[in-house]
Amino acid sequence: MKKAVxxxxxxxxxxxxxxxxxxxxxxxxPDSSQPPQTIKGITFVSxxxxxxxxxxxxxxxxxxxxPVHMVTVSSFQMSEAEITNSQYCAWLNAALVSGDITVTSSxxxxxxxxxxxxxxxxxxxxxxxxxxxxIRYSNTVFSVVSGxxxxxxxxxxxxxxxxxxxxxxxxxxxxxxxxxxxRGGKQYLYxxxxxxxxxxxxxxxxxxxxxxxxxxxxxxNPFGLYDMSGNVWEWCNDWYGGYNSSSATNPTGAQxxxxxxGRGGGWDTFASGCRSxxxxxxxxxxxxxxxGFRVVRR
Length: 298
Fold this sequence. Notes:
By secondary structure, the protein is α+β, with helices and mostly antiparallel strands. The protein has a domain at about 85-165. Helices cover about 15% and strands about 20% of the residues. It is built from four helices and 16 strands. It has helices at about 5-10, 85-95, 160-165, 175-180, and strands at about 35-40, 40-45, 50-55, 70-75, 75-80, 100-105, 105-110, 120, 135-140, 140-145, 235-240, 250, 260-265, 280, 290, 295. The strands form five sheets. The chain has a four-stranded antiparallel beta sheet with strand order 1-2-5-16, with no helix packed on it. It has a four-stranded mixed beta sheet with strand order 14-13-11-15. The relative contact order is 0.21.
């Protein structure tokens, strides 16, 4: 996930075609038998399992979205919005008490567990007056600068995202789960209420304030998910790897690699980079002012 125009210029020339959806379920919305659940201040919506066309056949110069292939995913739950500063801050305070993290020079680092020694979030990051980490640490307590509680957390690495999820028994979305959820059960080109993109539907480059905004500021998609396109890029669980034409069920991505998948585009990205099929990736140590995450329960 390269900075602003660096990513966006690549995507600017990208053009895709919209494919018809094929789903095992006739309902495009969440399973009504599993209403939204709020856990630890995070609301999860149920995503019904189904089959869809993953990727985009046109792609132009962005060939990593090809070939299109049929993918089936099992039902799961996804947080309705990107994890916010206040939600991440609450975890930091809990993880500090439990001894899972340590703080040195405004960098939060894993202290135990699978990601011990890895940096999670950079509290002193400041890119400009509107793009910075809004979480502070003072007198052994984490807090959020007033007014930024509901902005998506940024300056967070893949390790810091994964550690947050695992602390509560959750996970980051697999790439296939993410794209299926973004398309809303309707094979939508964008993760919006109707599959189209405009200033009133997505926070993207030069069509928003050029910084993140409160989550849920734009209409939700048919599954009840907000900001699947735009606002901030979202870390996924998978290592970044190529596609093949074979159909797959619950794929988990490449078995190894050096970069993890990012999805969705952000405030820094042109419209074409916010499409449902767009893939990008960065090393798990990367942190930026346009990268955040959401979580899933399986």
